[in-house]
């Protein structure tokens, strides 16, 4: 009886050990999904974009540089989708192999951005300052401290052409392809800010 009990105990322990080893092997064979989400206009990473997969794994958000990682992914084929505020969503298919990292690169097209959230702060900091383009001193009659004033343009005409950033005088002045460059006697706008303005105009220059 004792020998029979010892045999059964040994059998149970052996099965438990095999199960543990099997689980460990399964875990090491899982893969990792890494990638970036970028703005199609500027090529700059989009921070805070949501990334999800189908079949479902976990939903993650990109870091400040637009990078993301989804770990412990079962090998297989996945549809990876990303979306972000003021951008159209985008998806692509990627294969995750056992024990390896699969890399993906998602490009999102801007819907134009928000004037109040994205555009007005840029204009306020760089253009609507004393002696430049505010109510107190509007060079060329151009005030850049509100949507209405921006769309009204200067005494020489419109500076914004909705859906056509390339022809818009504001963009030409900011990029320095037309003089005088804006902002005058101040550092040029960053590539990111120029991209936001361009996307907003190409998206229809909406008052949103």
Main features:
4-stranded antiparallel beta sheet, 208 residues, Immunoglobulin-like, alpha+beta, 2 domains, 7 strands, elongated, 3-stranded mixed beta sheet
Notes on the structure:
The protein has 208 residues and is of the alpha+beta class. 31% of the residues lie in helices and 22% in strands. The strands form 2 sheets. A 4-stranded antiparallel sheet has the order 3-2-5-6, with no helix packed on it. The model is unreliable at 5-9 and 17-27 (pLDDT under 50).
Please provide a brief summary of the model.
The chain is α+β, with helices and mostly antiparallel strands and 208 residues long.
Secondary structure layout plus pairing:
Elements: H1 2-28, E1 31-39, E2 50-54, E3 60-61, E4 67-73, E5 76-83, E6 90-96, E7 101-108, H2 115-126, H3 147-152, H4 169-175, H5 191-202
Parallel strand pairs: 1-7
Antiparallel strand pairs: 1-4, 2-3, 2-5, 5-6
Mean pLDDT: 84
Which sheet architecture does the biggest sheet show? 4 strands, antiparallel
Which percent band covers the strand fraction? 15-25%
Give Rg in angstroms: 28 Å
Low-confidence stretches: 5-9, 17-27
- Order of adjacent strands in the largest pleated sheet: 3-2-5-6
Helix content: 25-40%
Order of helices and strands: HEEEEEEEHHHH
The separation of the N and C termini measures 82 Å
Instruction: Indicate how many domains the architecture comprises.
Output: 2
Q: Count the helices. How many?
A: 5
Main structural class: alpha+beta
* Number of separate strands: 7
Shape verdict: elongated
């Amino acid at each position: 009886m004792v020998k029979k009990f010892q045999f059964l105990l040994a059998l149970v322990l052996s099965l438990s050990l095999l199960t543990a080893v099997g689980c460990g092997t399964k875990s090491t064979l899982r893969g990792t999904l890494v990638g970036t989400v970028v703005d199609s206009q500027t090529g700059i990473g989009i921070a805070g974009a949501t990334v999800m997969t189908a079949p479902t794994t976990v939903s993650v958000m990109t870091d400040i540089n637009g990078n993301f990682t989804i770990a412990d992914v079962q090998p297989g084929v996945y549809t990876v989708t990303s979306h972000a505020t003021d951008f159209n969503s985008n998806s692509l298919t990627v294969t995750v192999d056992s024990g390896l990292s699969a890399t993906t690169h998602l490009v999102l097209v801007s819907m134009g951005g928000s004037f109040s959230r994205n555009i007005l702060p840029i204009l306020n900091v760089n253009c609507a300052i004393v002696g430049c383009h505010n109510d107190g001193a509007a060079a060329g009659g151009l005030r850049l401290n509100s949507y209405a004033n921006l769309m009204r343009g200067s005494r020489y005409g419109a500076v914004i052409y909705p859906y056509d950033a390339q022809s818009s005088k504001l963009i030409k002045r900011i990029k320095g392809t037309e003089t005088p460059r804006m902002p005058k006697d101040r550092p040029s706008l960053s590539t990111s800010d120029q991209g936001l303005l361009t996307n907003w105009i190409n998206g229809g220059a909406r008052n949103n």
